[in-house]
Structures are given as C-alpha cells and as structure tokens.
Design goal:
Layout: H1 2-6, H2 29-32, H3 44-64, E1 85-86, E2 105-110, H4 114-125, H5 133-149, H6 154-177, E3 181-187, H7 198-203, H8 208-211, H9 215-219, E4 225-228, E5 231-235, E6 245-249, E7 254-257, E8 259-262, E9 266-268, H10 276-279, H11 286-301, E10 308-313, H12 317-333, E11 339-344, H13 356-368, E12 371-374, E13 377-385, E14 389-396, E15 401-407, E16 409-412, E17 416-418, E18 434-435, E19 448-450, E20 455-456, H14 463-481, E21 495-499, E22 505-511, E23 515-520, H15 521-534, H16 539-550, H17 586-604, H18 610-613, H19 616-625, H20 632-643, H21 648-655
Parallel strand pairs: 2-3, 2-8, 3-4, 8-19, 10-11, 10-16, 11-12, 18-20
Antiparallel strand pairs: 1-7, 5-6, 6-7, 9-17, 13-14, 14-15, 21-22, 22-23
Helix pairs in contact: 4-14, 5-6, 14-17
Length: 656
C-alpha cells in the first residue's frame, strides 16, 4: 500500500523508475510540471525531463536565497524559475511579463558598480508584498482532492490523503524558500571595487578585501543572486505583446527580466592616442590596479641606481590623485632624488570641475612632492623603447610643436567611455550614450532604467551621482510595480574628496547656506576616510573596514608633531575663511532641504499626491524608517514651509 502511495509523489522527489501508468497530478503540478494541465493523464516516460527540471528548480530556490550563482537548465518559456539563467536555444520563446505586486518581479541589474550594487541591495531592503500565487493554487487543488474522498474507494481515499499531506509539507517548504522578488546582479568580476579607495591599494594603506570585497560576501542573505558573466546583448521587453526582456551572457545563457537596470559603467579610453592601449596602464578596474602594482614593484626591485621617470596622463581627479600617491610611494622606495613624476595636462588647468580652493591645495601638494605639472601637453603617441622603457610624443600648446620624452611607465588617467551593450538604445552620444528621462527610465521605455556613467543627465560621472541615483532607481522600480508615483531624480551636490598622498587630502564640503568649504591636510584625510567608511555598501563591510583602520594610527595621526608654532600652519585644515553671507538665505535653504526631502522620499517611498502616500505599501516602508526620524512634527513644519511640498503627509502617517 505504501509502495502505491509513493507513486503519488512528484517525480522530482521520487526515486521510482519510469512507468507508463497515468495518474492525476498533485496540487504542486504548477511548480514541478508547469506545462501539464491539472487532471490530465500523466506519463513518467513523457514527462521525466520536466520532473528533473522541477528538482533543479528547488535547488535553485535554495541556493538563490543564499546569494550564490547557480546555472540552471530551466527553459525560460516554462515560466518556472523565471529570472534565473536559462539555456539559450535558437528560437526560444520569451516568458510573459509579470504585472502587479502579487507576482515576484524579475529584476536584472547589469553591472556591479556603485549604481548597480547599491540599487540591488536597496531593492532587497524594500518591503515587497509576498506572492500569494503558490498558496492559493495549492489550496484550490487540495480542495479538489478532498472532494474526491467521498466518491472513492478506501484505497483511493488513502492515496489522495497521502498526496494532500505530502503536498502540504512541500508547500510549507517551498513558501519559505520563495522570495517575494527575484533580483539578479550580473557583473564580469567577482569583486565589487570601491573606486575612490583604489589609491589606498597603491599606497599600501588598505587591503584588497577592504577596497574590493567579494560580491557574495556583500550580498549575504539579502536574497539578491549574483551571476559572474559578461553581458553581450539585451532584448528589450515588449509591453504591447507582454513579453519579458532578455539579457544574453557571454557563455550563451540568458536571463529573462520584468525590469532591467543598466549600470555597466565606463572604462578608460585608451584609444585617444596610438600605442596607448598596448603600452600604457589605465586606472579604472581591479585588473588595472594589479598591473600598476606589478609595474611599480618591478621598478622598485631593480638594483640599478638609475633615475626613475613616471608619466601620468590626465589632469582630472584620477590623474592628480595618482601622481601624488605614486610620488609618495617612490619617495619611500627609491628616494625622492631618484624619482621624477610628470603630470601631462592637455588643457590649461588641472581639476577643472573642482573649486578654486581645491585646485590651490592640489597644486601646493603636488609642488611639495616635486611633481612636474605640464600644461597644454597632449600625448599623441606612446611607443615601446629598449624593452623596459617607453617613448611618448607630446604636442605642446596645440600649435604643431612636438617633442619626445623617455619614461619607465605611462599611467593613463585621461578620458573614459561607457561600456556598450548590444540592444540598448544609445541616443545620448559622447561618453554617456544612453538618454534617460527625469525618472531614470531609458527614453521611450517603461521597463528599462539606466544610471551611473552610462546615463546622460548632464552630471559628472562619479560615485556620488551613482549612489544618489541608486536610491531613486530602486524606489521607482518598486513604485512601478505597486502603482505608486515615480520620483524624478534630483542631484544634491555634497562636495568632493581627493586623496593627495599619505595623510594629505582636499575635502570640499557643500554646506547649506554657507557654500563650499575646503579642508586640507590630516583633517581632510581623516574626514575622507570616515565618509567612505559610511558609504560602504553594507553594515558588515563598514564595521570590518572601520575596525581594521582604527587599529592603524598612522592612517590618522601625523608621525611628527610640530615643535614650533610657525609649523602649526601646516596643520590648519581650513583654506580661506568660510563665507557666511548666505547662511540664512531662503533660496539656498529651500534648495538644500528640498533635495534632502527628495532623497528621504526615495529612501522610504513617497510622491507628490497625498492619496498615493496613504497606500499600505508606502506605509510599510515608512514605518521601517520611522525610528530614525527625530522630532518629526517640528521637522515637518520647517521643511513644508521651505520646500513648499506636502512633507507633513509622510510624518503624519507615523502618528496616526
């Protein structure tokens, strides 16, 4: 009897051999055998392959909750395990788009930089509505089984009862494994690179795990699944035919999506001068850091007491910071008298986007480190010479005058270009080719978002912009699913932070009502480190980096304390005097607090209409953030008066 009852179990959980007998499918047929209508005769021989797919689907559900990447052989057209990696067969049909919060949304994030990773983690933190689809269908089919008991023989009753009990147990298990969302993060590297701290890897102040932690460690138990592959093409979602979009990977597998986030970032443009791609080292990826570290180590290991010449190309933040950090390193290894660092700037000024005070600090520190800043010097060619040396051709002043110079190493930090993906419309042109609207949606699209270095919004391509965009992008996807208002992106310039060597930095803070205040020296260096610790993607990573850095006093305190009063000027953190003329300027305060309020809405949910603000989905997300809002009513009145928004509706939700 128990042997016959065992045949009622789904084939994915049974070790029985194939049989030609037919039997009605159990209540979980839509999970294990999605293409078989309920109640139809079933053949083990005919559907054995689908049974195997069902067992792989269970494995996928278990592993995806742990954030690990697993390649599944499920076909996208089955509708099971959608959002997972599927075999790319020619002519394979795409799955259907999912609508509404009742179905787990398949969200695919391309690129694991600041925009991509932070968007994925933010999406996982939002309070998604759990899908009732599996429990409802299971209960309905179990009711049908119970009805059959009254008109069945004793043996059939026992068989149906055993089937119902097993399915209820499986239902509890699967419901606990099914996430209310399906977020897949795709990146070609296995590590997230915190780019503002790449310079600490060159100086030796930070370790690899501090600056470039593994994705699997950051994702943890968030429910986000990581896939390490390169994206080769994207088929956009078709909202008219209700077909899901599809991302194709370099191994031929595909991932179907309901929403797509493009955050593949940019790479160093080594095609600006002939020979740069073959003979220069960029500074944008972890591989670039490894190449530069090896090249510097080879130079330092040479026993010959010959002068060392390093050429850094680019007068932007990356070039300036690199020149200062490399100068410090070579001074400690080969000696200041033996190292010559040249910074080639194509224009008339370094740090054109920075404030005048920040440029003054940078020029002063570069001068102290004996870095030669060569203005109006454009590198036209890089060629290899005598094995270990290179020859660069320089166009001076754009007047046709050319000279050559020999160098041991060429570091290229000039220019960048967005990483292109086939199938994504690129109408923006320039180095940010994807045109997006104010809600970060790709223009003309409803299911595809873009942010960071690939999205054209007239903003600088830096981590600050991408971080702020990730809050809005995550909320706008969540709002699209739950029929909430989308929030237009509003950038809030918080300032700039630059590393200029060991315990040297320039920190420009944009203070409301005061304007730009620039700090320098050890104070600016410490402030920069603290700010980046706070910006780490997870609390675990923040705690790890903070604990390890605080155990190294040399990263915070100068080795020598000034013995004379005249030397104290070096440790004065201020550059000039702050301007307090606009401290109580109403326009300045409106802009500052308006931007802060927008970011609060993106973090907790919100919109312009009060009827949307009363939705249960929004209330759930706001309540999660309520404990961290101090003096809600007082802040409400102040922001409401300044920004003219209905800020009070958000805070009133907490008190009702």
């Amino acid at each position: 009897m128990f042997g016959k009852a065992n045949k009622l179990l789904p084939a994915s959980l049974s070790s029985l051999k194939a049989s030609s007998s037919a039997w009605p499918l159990p209540c979980l047929d839509h999970i294990f055998f999605p293409n078989v209508p309920h109640g139809q005769p079933f053949s083990y021989q005919k559907w054995s392959r689908r049974a195997l797919r069902g067992s792989l689907n269970l494995q996928q559900l278990r592993v995806s909750r742990r954030g690990l990447s697993v390649k599944s052989s499920l076909n996208a057209d089955t509708g099971v395990g959608a959002g997972t990696v599927a075999d790319a067969e020619e002519g394979q049909a795409r799955s259907s788009l999912r609508y509404g919060p009742d179905k787990p949304q398949r969200i695919v994030v391309l690129g694991g930089g600041f925009g991509g990773l932070y968007t994925a983690l933010k999406l996982a933190d939002l309070k998604w509505k759990t899908s009732p689809e599996v429990p409802v269908r299971a209960k309905q089919q179990n009711r049908e089984l119970i009805k059959r008991l009254s008109n069945s023989s004793l043996l059939d009753r026992m068989r149906h009862l055993a089937t119902a009990c097993v399915n209820l147990l499986l239902l509890v298990l699967i419901s606990s494994l099914l996430p209310p969302f399906q977020i897949t993060l795709v990146d070609v590297s296995d590590r997230f690179l915190f780019k503002p701290l790449m310079y600490e890897l060159i100086s030796g102040e930070a370790t690899l795990d501090q600056v470039a932690p593994l994705f699997r460690d950051l994702i943890g138990a968030s429910g986000v699944r990581f896939v390490q592959h390169e994206v080769t093409a994207v088929t956009l979602a078709d909202t008219e035919k209700k077909l899901a979009g599809r991302a194709k990977l370099d191994d031929g597998s595909t991932i179907d999506y309901d929403f797509l986030v493009m955050g593949v970032g940019a790479e160093t443009n080594l095609n600006l001068s002939p020979g740069a791609k073959e003979n220069a080292i960029g500074f944008n990826t972890l591989d670039d850091v490894r190449k530069l570290e090896k090249a510097l180590q080879d130079i330092e290991d040479e026993e010959t007491q010959k002068p060392v010449s390093i050429s850094v190309v680019g007068g932007g933040p990356s070039g300036v910071e690199l020149a200062a950090v490399v100068a410090d390193r070579l001074e400690a290894s080969v000696g200041a008298s033996m190292a010559s660092i040249s910074l080639y700037v194509a224009g008339d000024e370094i740090l054109e986007s920075a404030t005048a005070d920040a440029r003054t600090v940078a020029k002063s520190i570069l001068n102290e480190k004996n870095v030669k800043v060569l203005y109006s010097n454009k590198i036209e060619k890089v060629a290899q010479k005598d094995g270990k040396k290179f020859e660069i051709s320089i166009n001076i002043g754009g007047k046709g005058e050319t000279k050559t110079a020999d160098t041991n190493l060429v570091i290229w930090a000039a220019g960048s270009k967005a990483v292109g993906v086939k199938g994504i419309p690129q109408e923006g042109g320039g180095r940010m080719p994807i045109s997006i609207d104010k809600n970060l949606l790709i223009k003309g699209r409803q299911r595809e978002f873009a942010l960071g270095d690939v999205a054209e919004m007239g903003l600088p391509a830096n981590a600050q912009v991408a971080l702020q965009q990730s809050d809005y992008c995550a909320w706008n996807i969540f709002a699209s699913v739950n029929s909430e208002n989308l929030l237009p992106f509003r950038f809030q310039n918080l300032g700039t932070l630059m590393a200029l060597g060991s315990l040297e930095a320039a920190a420009t803070l944009n203070l409301p009502g005061v304007g730009d205040v620039t700090l320098k020296g050890p104070v600016a260096s410490g402030l920069r480190k603290l700010a980046y610790i706070y910006r780490m993607p997870t609390n675990q990573q923040r705690l790890k980096v903070a604990t390890e850095w605080l155990q190294s006093p040399e990263m915070w305190i100068p080795p020598e304390v000034p013995s004379e009063m005249k030397e104290l000027e070096k440790f004065n953190p201020f550059v000039g005097a702050p301007n307090f003329n606009k401290l109580l300027d109403e326009k300045e305060l409106k802009e500052a607090f308006g931007a802060l309020f927008d970011r609060f809405q993106a973090g907790t949910g919100g919109g312009d209409e009060t009827d949307h603000l009363s939705s249960p989905v929004l209330v759930a997300n706001i309540e999660a953030s309520a404990p961290c809002i101090p003096r809600r009513k007082e802040i409400n009145l102040f922001i409401s008066h300044l920004s003219g928004t209905k800020a009070h509706t958000l805070y009133d939700l907490h008190d009702e």
